[in-house]
Amino acid sequence: MTADIQAKTKKTSQVSNSKIAVLITGASSGIGLALAMKYVDQGYQVFACGRNEQSLQNIKGAYPLVFDINDKTQIENAAQLLKAALIKSQSSLNSVVLNAGSCEYIDDPVQFDGALFERVIQTNVISMGYCLQHFLPLIATNGRVGLMSSSATYLPFPRAEAYGASKAAVNYLASSLRLDLKAHNIGVSVICPGFVKTPLTDKNDFAMPMQISADNAADEIIYGMKIGRNEIHFPKRFTLILKFLSCLPNVIVNSLLSPKPNN
Asked: Which of 80, 220, 228, 233: CA 20 to 30 A from 190?
């Protein structure tokens, strides 16, 4: 295919996608930012959501929706703005990717940090429920919602009591919601990344094998959403190892993953 034909193909794709809208939470950085930029490049109308207005304004071609996912009133207001924008542009909301989230670790299991646990569950699960409440009614028939989970749900990991529990809840939420939305012709994808280089994972103080870029992660998500995958997990060379290990007896898994006692 020549460069000229490629350019025409891209232009045609953008024209055909111009009335199709995509909403992405957590679009200020990391995977969400990469998703927003790629969807814009493909010609979609992108609603980029986050708390950092300046970062959202820097996504050329995207419509910024500034709100805090932990504030249900702000979510409701954002949904009203979204509805008005869709009507004005005569666009249909085809995809919603609820990507925003946080990660904190329990460093002392004996002195369990209940406040930390609450923060993570609130951000990763409860806020997702309010986003679904206000955004789901706006999704067009044959649309799809993507819920950000993690490959950490395949196995129990040290210090991940809060993060892992929140993402396990997202997995169940996605599975149950998929059943109920089938009659409404709305699909549900649960997204389970391995280690992706983002500002969030940059804070980790442990090795992150087979880490990939946010751009590569975005490619996987966009493709998985497009073909309607129920579970989008990547990179396969990492996630398939975790899936295999999850089939082993618990005694073996616990022996492999339990922290070694201090001497």
From this structure: 80
**Cα separation values, 155 from 7, 118, 179, 239, 243, Å:** 45, 21, 25, 11, 8
Q: Tokens 């919601």 belong to which residue?
A: 177
**Residue 262 is assigned to a structural domain of this protein:** no
Does 11 map to a domain? no
Domain limits for position 79: 19-257
* Residue 217's CATH number: 3.40.50.720
Q: Do strands 196-197 and 187-193 pair parallel, antiparallel, or not at all (unpaired)?
A: unpaired
Q: What's the domain count of the chain? A: 1
pTM of the model: 0.89
DSSP string covering 146-207? EEE--GGGGS--TT-HHHHHHHHHHHHHHHHHHHHHGGGT-EEEEEEE--EESTTGGG--S-
